Amino acid sequence: MTVTTAHPAATLTLDPLGPAFGAEVLGLDLASVTDAELAAVRAALVDRKVLFFRDQRLDEDSQVALGRRLGELTPSHPVVAGVDEAHPEIYAIDSADNGFADVWHTDVTFMPRPPLGSILRAVTLPESGGDTSWADGQLAYESLSRPVREMADQLTAVHDGNREFGYYLAQRRGGKGNVWDGRTVTALDPVEHPVIRVHPETGRKGIFVNPGFTSHIVGVSDAESRAVLDLLYAHLTKPEHIIRHRWRLGDVAMWDNRSTSHYANRDYGTTHRVMHRITLRGDRPFGPEGPATA
C-alpha cells in the first residue's frame, strides 16, 4: 500500500512500514532533490519518525551536502574523529573498528543537546544480516497505562557516555574530543534529561531513556531505578512499537532522534559492515513541565 503526504510545495509517495511509524519514500533522488521536496521530507520525518530511501547515489560529499540543507550539522561525534579530514561530520560505524551499535540507544543522549536527527548511508554490507530496528518512543509512551505515564512524567534520568566512549576520549591526543555546541569535549560529564521528552515541534510525549546511555533515574533507590527502567525498556521494544529495515547498497535512512531508539543486529560474524552517519544539531530536551527557564 502506498500513500501520499503533502507539503504546501511538494508531495511525497510513501510506502508505510507501520500504521503510524516508518515509511519508505518512493521515487525520490536525494542527490537532486528540490528545496520543496526536501521540505516535504522534513515534515514527513517528524510525522513518520523514520524514513528510508532506496537506490540512492550519495557519496561522502553529497551526504554532507544533503545534511546541510536539512539543518546544522554536528561533528561526527563528541569524541570520535570524522571518517577523514575532508569529512569531519561523518561518523564511520565500522565493524572492523568495534562499530556495532548492538544495544538499544538514541544517538548521543549523553550530551546536553543530543542530535535532532541522523542520516545513515550503507557503505559496505554483509551478504545477509546487519538489519537495523527502530522503536517509536511516542507510540510506546501513549500505550502505557495511565498510572505509569503519570509516574514517568515526573522522572528525570542521568545519561552517561563514559561506558561506551570514555575509552575513545582517553585515546585522543591531549584527551580532547571534538567541538560540540561550541566547546571542546575534554570529559563526558553525565547529564540529566527528562524520562519523558516532549517533542518541540508536535508536543507529543515519548519515552526518552535508553539502555545504551541511561545510567539511572534521579531521586529514587537503585532498585527502584532498575525496575522502572527495565519496565520502560521492555515496553518500548515490544514488537508493535518496532520497525526493521533490511539494508541494500544504495539505501539511506533518516530518523528523528527526539522520538526514536534503534538497534543494529550483530548477526553477520566476521563479515565487514560499514555505515556512514551524520547528525543534525538538536536542542535541549524538555519534559512535561516545559523547557527550563535558566
Automatic annotation (TrEMBL):
**Keyword set, alphabetical order:** Dioxygenase, Iron, Metal-binding, Oxidoreductase
Q: Which domain of life is it from?
A: Bacteria
TauD/TfdA-like domain residues are: 15-279
Query: A GO molecular-function term, please?
Result: dioxygenase activity
The reply to whether Heme figures as a keyword in the UniProt entry is: no
Q: Which InterPro entries match?
A: AtsK-like, TauD-like_sf, TauD/TfdA-like
Q: Which family does it belong to?
A: Belongs to the TfdA dioxygenase family.
Q: What is the protein name given in its UniProt record?
A: TauD/TfdA dioxygenase family protein
Q: Which organism is it from?
A: Sphaerisporangium aureirubrum
